Amino acid sequence: MEKTIALRVNGRAVSVTAMADTPLLYILRNDLALNGPKYGCGLGECGACTVILDGVAARSCVIPLAGAEGREVVTLEGLGSSAAPHPVQQAFIDEQAAQCGYCMNGMIMTAKALLDRNPTPTMDEVRRALSGNLCRCGTHVEILRAVMRAARLLSSPGAHHDDQPNARIAVPADADPCGADGGDRRPADR
Ligand code: FES
Ligand code: FES
């Protein structure tokens, strides 16, 4: 049976009507049009679907919608925009830390959560934090450099960045984002 569940996504109150055990990833992608989080393994093993849940990096493919009730979710779209990237995003651009880019969401969101709790990590700490995020293209060296660069950017004098509430969520707080047809519950297209 479907249930209406309230949560906050990228700083906005959202109300979603869906089966309570629907993976949060499907809700973000299919119902809220937030395609930053990617569907990789669907088993909590690759990190492509990572979001920040109450300040902690979490795998949205294995978190049921009910598990996010009343909680704060931040997706890639909640960090910055192409016009004004978050320093972590800027660092990944500067280091050209992507080939296919499929792992980037998970790498960036995991790095963001790490830097929020530890603004000056060692390379070993960065390695440990990202050890569960898979990159099939082998851009690990550039990714590690990007996270260290992001730490420098964020800690440089005068550095300031307000995380930006997502401007692309078109779901009013009181709307049913499932629409009349109940939405598409299949794993999101890659
Ligand atoms: S898609 Fe969630 S961990 Fe792989
Ligand atoms: S850049 Fe392709 S999976 Fe990491």
Automatic annotation (TrEMBL):
It comes from the Bacteria. Keywords: 2Fe-2S, Iron, Iron-sulfur, Metal-binding, Oxidoreductase, Plasmid. One of its GO terms (molecular function) is oxidoreductase activity. Residues 157-190 are annotated as: Disordered. InterPro entries: 2Fe-2S-bd (IPR002888), 2Fe-2S-bd_dom_sf (IPR036884), 2Fe-2S_ferredoxin-like_sf (IPR036010), 2Fe-2S_ferredoxin-type (IPR001041), 2Fe2S_fd_BS (IPR006058), Beta-grasp_dom_sf (IPR012675), Diverse_Oxidoreductases (IPR051452). Pfam families: Fer2 (PF00111), Fer2_2 (PF01799). Residues 3-79 form the 2Fe-2S ferredoxin-type domain. This is (2Fe-2S)-binding protein. It comes from Azospirillum oryzae.
